[in-house]
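Proteins fold reproducibly. Consider a sample protein:
=====
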Amino acid sequence: MTTNLTSQPPFTKSNNHSSKEIDNSTEQSLNNAIQGLIVINNSHQIIGWNPISSYLTGYKREEIINTSILDLIPSEEEKKDFLANFERLSEFDETMDVYHESTVHLVTPCGQENSVNLQWNRMIVAGEKIFNICISNLVFTQKFIQTAQEKDNILIHKEKQLAKLTSSNKQLESFAYVASHDLKEPLRSIGNFTQLLGRRLENKLDETDKEFFGFVTSGVKNMNSLIEDLLTYSRVNSGKNELVNIVPKDALAIVLNGLNQRVVETNAQIEIKELPAQITGNSTTFKQLLQNLIANAIKFQNPEMDPKITISGEEQKDRWVFRVSDNGIGIKEEYYEKVFSVFTKLHHKSVYPGSGIGLSVCQRIVEQHDGEIWIDSVFGKGTNFYFSIAKHLCNSQH
């Protein structure tokens, strides 16, 4: 056994704790330690033992607690050296804490001997001598360092992947915006020249020719609508999320005014229940969120029934939660997540026209407000759309 015995004045002596407080403090230190830690009293009895000590020695806490540490030292010679150094440690002036370092062979439950390094700190606590012993060996230390390095490498790799993904998303959003914007002009030209050609040849076309021209015109309109929706989605993703105080009742009034023609045409009944007096969010995108959900509720309606839509909101602990309910055709549960995907349509455009991007825009807006959007629906009877907006937002969030 090799030893190094020195006094350590920098360690603080404490006589102000009760035994119970010492036990609690020691137990917390044991659990938080990143190396083996054993606590023994002046009778060599083990009174503290942490999980890493079990890993190093093979003994479980319940097996080792209240036993003598001497039972772990198989060599009689090392045991005598241990006791001699222990006595010297105990004899030091009680006004100072003492540090002691040694190497010793401990026996494992299966009878093998394991060379470990012990670093002791003798302290006087509540008038009693206790010994905190850090236990380690070279193999474990190297393994611990290697594991930490591997975790750091994994974290760095994930951060790089996230940075690449963020960059890729930004490039994709930029491409979608530029491509959509640049497509509008040639598409407009195709539409205009098709109409001019149709008027010139109007008296020379048979029914089949007119049908073909109708396909072209309809295709141009559908493509233009798709481009407009793609531009909307790109703007939501790339725009700054500037936050202001919003009065939901006022925002809803503006939205309903814009949807007035659809409301009149469909004879929709819209009921506004209690709403939060004021929230924090992006005014433009919040109104767009409400508009998309209400427009959807009007559109996806049983033709034999007038739309009935209810809008409400409430304050919860750390967020505002809004609900837009309708008596429409409903959504099957297996499609709850799918409907938020870009360009997802559950019905043919001849029945319910549109590009299938509206709910994707809603989801993105809610995410920008650090919230969630979800569905509760009964197929054939109606749907509840819920969305939340976090209370504690700042202008740095996007």
User: Anything to note?
Assistant: Confidence is low (pLDDT under 50) at residues 1-22, 350-354. The chain has ten helices and 13 strands. Residues 240-398 form a domain with the Heat Shock Protein 90 fold (CATH 3.30.565.10). The chain has three domains: 2-136, 139-238, 240-398.
